[in-house]
Amino acid sequence: SLAVLQALEDGLKKAEADPSVKAVMICGENGKFSAGADIRGFSSPKRHGVALGPIVSLIESSEKPVVAAIEGVALGGALEVALGCHYRIAHVKARMGLPEVTIGLLPGAEGTQRLPRLIGVPAALDMITTGKHIPATEALKLGLVDEVVEENTIEAAIHLANKV
Questions:
Q1: 3-state SS, residue 149
Q2: Is 80 a catalytic residue?
Q3: Under a CB-based contact definition with an 8 Å cutoff, are residues 62 and 21 in contact?
Q4: Candidates 80, 110, 147, 150; catalytic one
Q5: Distance CA 17, CA 12 (A)
Q6: For the domain bounded by 2-163, which CATH number is listed?
Q7: Where do the domains of the chain lie?
């Protein structure tokens, strides 16, 4: 939603400007990272304000480490947000993917560029063209996530952020 995008932008800019902030962790609420964009918003009149692509670029260009704590699902735009992060930690039950292709849409926030850089062209093409959701353990093998945990994903992400 626009509110989530605006909160991400505001939070990132505030963290970047605050010298006491050493790293940023992005997580969802109630055990869910994000299922991505609401498809109903695509048919609404042209939105003004923030857009996902520039937010992901803002994350990627942060001088401070940004860690994604992925629980539940990171699908579509949510995976693109995670791809912009410098590090990704996933709960063992998390799933990731770019399912918008199954309804005729291409990932619109440069996920088609960031994913191949991270996991290689063959694996990325498979994910991008099929829209399949991959489990965290497969994401770890591919290099999509840096660590898979069975317990508290947020604590693990904070630990990693402090370490780097």
A1: strand
A2: yes
A3: no
A4: 80
A5: 9
A6: 3.90.226.10
A7: 2-163
Is the overall model pTM greater than 0.70, yes or no? Answer: yes
pLDDT digits (tens, 9 = 90+) for 50-87: 788 999 999 999 999 999 999 999 999 999 999 999 99
What is the total residue count of the chain?
164
User: Catalytic site residue 100?
Assistant: yes
Torsion sign (Cα): 8, 1, 132, 73: positive
**107-121 pLDDT, tens digit each:** 888 889 999 999 999
Active-site residue, from 9, 16, 29, 100: 100
**pLDDT tens by residue, 6-52:** 999 999 999 999 999 999 999 998 888 987 776 666 555 555 667 88
Closest of 164, 156, 144, 143 to residue 64, by C-alpha: 164
